[in-house]
Amino acid sequence: xxxxxxxxxxxxxxxxxxxxxxxxxxxxxxxxxxxxxxxxxxxxxxxxxxxxxxxxxxxxxxxxxxxxxxxxxxxxxxxxxxxxxxxxxxxxxxxxxxxxxxxxxxxxxxxxxxxxxxxxxxxxxxxxxxxxxxxxxxxxxxxxxxxxxxxxxxxxxxxxxxxxxxxxxxxxxxxxxxxxxxxxxxxxxxxxxxxxxxxxxxxxxxxxxxxxxxxxxxxxxxxxxxxxxxxxxxxxxxxxxxxxxxxxxxxxxxxxxxxxxxxxxxxxxxxxxxxxxxxxxxxxxxxxxxxxxxxxxxxxxxxxxxxxxxxxxxxxxxxxxxxxxxxxxxxxxxxxxxxxxxxxxxxxxxxxxxxxxxxxxxxxxxxxxxxxxxxxxxxxxxxxxxx
Length: 387
Known about the structure:
Blueprint: H1 3-16, H2 22-33, H3 38-49, H4 60-74, H5 84-94, E1 116-117, E2 125-126, E3 129-131, E4 137-139, E5 146-151, E6 154-158, E7 164-168, E8 178-183, E9 187-192, E10 198-201, E11 205-210, E12 219-230, E13 239-242, E14 247-250, E15 254-259, E16 266-272, E17 275-278, E18 283-286, E19 290-295, E20 298-303, H6 306-309, E21 316-323, H7 324-335, E22 338-341, E23 350-356, H8 361-369, E24 375-379, E25 382-386
Parallel strand pairs: 1-24, 2-9, 7-9, 12-13, 22-25
Antiparallel strand pairs: 3-4, 3-8, 5-6, 6-7, 8-11, 9-10, 10-12, 11-12, 12-15, 13-14, 14-17, 15-16, 16-19, 17-18, 19-20, 21-23, 24-25
């Protein structure tokens, strides 16, 4: 293999291991765009991931389009724990939704559709409101990095990435105090709790927690909306998350809880470790890649691919043949819009796709409209949906 192909393999492997620099990502993008290297790219994927494109039944044009768009949309996205093939598979799976023939981000003619967008809407941001035990409300986005407050022997500060950090300063005053971190629609935030646990809070959510876990027999917090948790291990002090309909008990693990009040069911998805989920009627032990669904029909557990569930944490939309209106609720929360369904709006159809949440709303809607099944009109902060 000549020096050029050696370089291609080198940066391909760096990208797959999430170690490529921005310059190396652009360099890889140049290779992907060059038809001279199409066979080499194909061989790298097939050899490294043991998943030839032929399994997906794609044409040569479709394979090339999927690859180009995968790299294009990934150039500015910081990913964690998601391998390259899982993203290519997500893209390819779009092509298999034969019921609607929907290519969510595969190449299309560049001619713009005639869409009635009175205005466009920017994506959500890292913002939140921190309510201290005293009742004082602090808009996090308005603060410069540095110390915010000291409570119960714990320093609260904001780091340069906008994350809220709780750091133990002494053994604490013994007084039990609570803080509440709240996001509205169009906001998300991350907080590192006094025990070192990391919580990602999605839009329209809140997390209530003690300012210190000292002298407590367990680490107990309350969640509404959606949160992704990476819990620090402490066998003697279980971490307990309470929502409106369930309680989740863990020792040290990674998992996601979707407990929005406007969703028909509450879903808890485990990525690592194990958790005990309890409701008023029953309890379940979850294993990695299992999802518990709590609804009026009880609790069910099934094996899932967790990448879709936690895609929001990585600032992405990842839809896998999902219900249309479920996805519209995700979009409404992130872009802080109201969805208005016209009388002829479609109800029962599914689609799949992958797109960065850093794009404007019109970009998301235009791609959906390529199904030919749905049309949108943006007016102010309302999105009108019709057939």
